[in-house]
């Protein structure tokens, strides 16, 4: 609907001639073969102009370049929002941010009724698996829907509580290792099954800390080092798929969710402005049926990814979306109809109450709606250095009118009650006031307030202080961290994240009452912020106000429904209070909300055991070890229940699993020895001796050895 509204006013397209893209688009001569498998790789924060295939000479990127040579390279690929979560949501739903509702990295999850690429592929019989490297793409984003396996186990746990949202990440080699393990465990049969994979690599994202040898090779330009390192990861991914016989029959699409500003326009990073440094992305498609060594001149919008992939894989498309398929352009060199491209940056509005930025591109013309609008001719001025809004007023007016059409549709959607996510009215109102559920953004919020162009220095100062405060918090230098966050408060900053992190730093100093006030302030601004509810509860627990902690968690359950963490913490507090019934009720809620959460099943097992229900406990421990076989404690608990029930053989096996996972724990070796002793096996003595090696003070092991010696 949105695209239709715009299409009427689109002028004939003048194709972009971007820097570094010299070759003409040529028609790929290919036969229509359909790939059996599919892999999409999203390289977070990767600027197109850092890749050799896009003209870079500063960083060798042989693996990406080889893919580009073997496939079709989009000369002009673009995102619609320079932020990770909403960009991926757009890519995977074929809808613009206002249409799918994910506008920020801490938005509500993608609504469950918005169709996704993964869900379509799964419905078509694909086995689907995703491996993501950033917390902002964790299953709480809602992007996990449609995936049979969703590996989002990034390093999110920090001693000081939830870490900076942007810092919770894992290195790409770990992500690839998880993918390889999954491939080995599932061994996709080449001829009989279809597999679809999403691999997200976060490495080029700030902080720029490439591993050696790239850190040394790129000393002084660590972003380039991350690019070089990421290119080697692409090589490893290819080898992994080749080694398993999957590569030749796989459709590969590689792109980025956004670029990175390295000082251009005064911006460092991404997510504030809406210039091409952060909107332009690389995009390559390779695989059966795709022409080799070709380029694609028409704009490849990330909103087009899902329709294109579905058609290339022979899977029915999703009706009513804004994106369109470029499959025939990729396979036959067909020239698609020109379309406009929309983009936005709401960060200045959402986090600083300044004006938002709304963008419409039509061919080479790019219009940025702001208090002081801008117009650029990207063909002649790819660096966006000459604003033509006052000299070419006709074009500016035309693009503005087209953009207004989109914004009108956005406002109409906001008024449609059916489009609202199922959260409390109060939450919606507060989120809306912040621009969060922009379906609920106030009518006059567009291009109102301070112009971000006038605020870049202030933004840099504030985000710099925020960064420092967070780094200090991570290092547990709480007093210094409080001082950075305090300066931000003095500068007038009043964001929910600031109050949250200030609360974390205060809690680190043991100032729990002050911390509580900060968490409450954070929640007043952002009621659905789960982490703040948990931290508020933790601050109350620290003051031994357990009833208050329960109240905080229950309020959180109202403001952020279906967040397992809030019930999990509640269950633990009830357990401390000795109310096993309520504890169990809370854990059962977690288990229902998080079907793959092994830890809560283990907790339930322990609780059942403590209330004299070993049979029920046994079932939970079995679930825990099935869901996550890597945790030694789960196996140990399973072994204890089995042993207690006289099933010595199976118990011994469980303890052996525990010992395999953690060979330095004397409890496990002792338990193994004990169950072997009870079933009369001489091997028992060996395990008691090993227990004493691990822990010479482990008295029961000594006693058992003495018994055996008799
Ligand atoms: Zn990103």
Key phrases:
eight-stranded mixed sheet; alpha/beta; Alkaline Phosphatase, subunit A; Serine Threonine Protein Phosphatase 5, Tetratricopeptide repeat; four-stranded antiparallel sheet; binds zinc ion
Description of the molecule:
The chain has 710 residues and is α/β, with parallel strands linked by helices. The chain is 47% helix and 10% strand. Among the domains are: 2-339, Alkaline Phosphatase, subunit A; 629-710, Tetratricopeptide repeat domain (Serine Threonine Protein Phosphatase 5, Tetratricopeptide repeat), CATH 1.25.40. The strands form four sheets. The chain has an eight-stranded mixed sheet with strand order 5-4-6-1-7-11-2-12, sandwiched between helices. α24 (614-627) runs antiparallel to α25, α26 packs antiparallel against α27 and α28 runs antiparallel to α29 (699-709). The radius of gyration is 28 Å and the shape is globular. Zinc ion binds next to loops.
């Amino acid at each position: 609907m949105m695209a239709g509204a715009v299409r009427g006013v689109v002028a004939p397209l003048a194709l972009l001639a971007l820097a570094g893209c010299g070759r003409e688009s040529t028609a790929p001569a290919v036969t229509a073969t359909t790939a059996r498998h599919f892999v999409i790789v999203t390289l977070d924060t990767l600027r197109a102009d850092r890749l050799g295939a896009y003209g870079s000479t500063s960083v060798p990127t042989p693996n990406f370049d080889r893919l580009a040579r073997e496939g079709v390279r989009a000369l002009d690929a673009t995102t619609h929002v320079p932020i990770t979560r909403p960009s991926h949501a757009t890519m995977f739903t074929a809808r613009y941010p206002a249409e799918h509702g994910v506008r920020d990295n801490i938005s509500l999850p993608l609504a469950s009724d918005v169709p996704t690429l993964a869900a379509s592929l799964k419905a078509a019989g694909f086995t689907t698996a995703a491996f993501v490297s950033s917390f902002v793409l964790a299953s709480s984003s809602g992007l996990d829907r449609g995936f049979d396996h969703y590996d989002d186990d990034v390093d999110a746990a920090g001693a000081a509580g939830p870490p900076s949202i942007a810092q919770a990440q894992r290195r790409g080699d770990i992500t690839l290792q998880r993918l390889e393990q999954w491939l080995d465990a599932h061994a996709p049969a080449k001829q009989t099954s279809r597999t679809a994979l999403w691999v997200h690599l976060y490495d080029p994202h700030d902080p720029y800390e490439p591993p050696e040898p790239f850190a040394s090779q790129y000393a002084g330009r660590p972003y380039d080092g991350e690019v070089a390192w990421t290119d080697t990861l692409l090589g490893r991914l290819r080898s992994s798929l080749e080694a398993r016989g999957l590569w030749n029959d796989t459709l590969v699409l590689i792109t980025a969710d956004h670029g990175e500003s390295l000082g251009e326009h005064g911006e460092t990073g991404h997510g504030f402005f809406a210039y091409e440094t952060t909107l332009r992305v690389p995009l390559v498609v390779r695989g059966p049926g795709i022409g080799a060594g070709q380029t694609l001149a028409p704009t490849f919008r990330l909103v087009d990814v899902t329709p294109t992939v579905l058609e290339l894989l022979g899977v029915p498309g999703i009706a009513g979306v804004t994106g369109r398929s470029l499959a025939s352009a990729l396979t036959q060199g067909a020239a698609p109809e020109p379309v406009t491209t929309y983009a936005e940056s709401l960060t200045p509005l959402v986090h600083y109450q300044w004006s938002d930025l709304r963008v419409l591109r039509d061919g080479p013309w790019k219009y940025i709606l702001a208090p002081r609008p801008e117009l650029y001719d990207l063909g002649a001025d790819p660096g966006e250095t000459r604003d033509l809004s006052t000299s070419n007023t006709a074009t500016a007016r035309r693009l503005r009118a087209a953009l207004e059409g989109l914004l009108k549709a956005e406002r109409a959607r906001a008024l449609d009650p059916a489009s609202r996510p199922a959260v409390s009215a109060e939450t919606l109102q507060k989120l809306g006031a912040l621009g969060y559920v922009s379906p609920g953004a106030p009518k006059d919020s567009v291009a109102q307030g301070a112009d971000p162009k006038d605020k870049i220095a202030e933004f840099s100062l504030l985000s710099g202080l925020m960064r420092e405060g967070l780094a200090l918090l991570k290092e547990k230098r709480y007093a210094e961290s409080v001082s950075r966050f305090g300066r931000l408060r003095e500068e007038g900053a009043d964001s929910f994240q600031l109050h949250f992190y200030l609360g974390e730093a205060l809690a680190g100093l043991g100032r729990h009452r002050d911390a509580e006030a900060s968490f409450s302030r954070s929640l007043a601004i952002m009621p659905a912020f789960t982490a703040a509810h948990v931290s508020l509860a933790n601050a109350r627990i620290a003051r031994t106000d357990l009833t208050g902690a329960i109240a905080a968690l229950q309020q959180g359950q109202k403001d952020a429904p279906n967040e397992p963490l809030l019930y999990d913490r509640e269950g633990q507090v009830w357990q401390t209070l000795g109310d096993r019934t309520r504890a169990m009720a809370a854990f059962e809620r977690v288990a229902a909300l998080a079907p793959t959460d092994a830890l809560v099943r283990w907790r339930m097992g322990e609780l059942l055991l403590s209330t004299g229900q070993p049979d029920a406990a046994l079932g939970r421990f079995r679930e825990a070890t099935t869901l996550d076989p890597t945790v030694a404690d789960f196996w140990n608990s399973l072994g204890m229940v089995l042993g207690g029930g006289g099933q010595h053989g199976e118990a011994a096996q469980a303890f052996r699993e525990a010992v395999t996972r953690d060979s330095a724990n004397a409890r496990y070796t002792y338990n193994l020895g004990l169950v072997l002793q009870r079933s009369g096996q001489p091997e028992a003595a060996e395990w008691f001796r090993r227990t004493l090696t691990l822990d010479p003070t482990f008295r029961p092991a000594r006693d058992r050895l003495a018994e055996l010696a008799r």
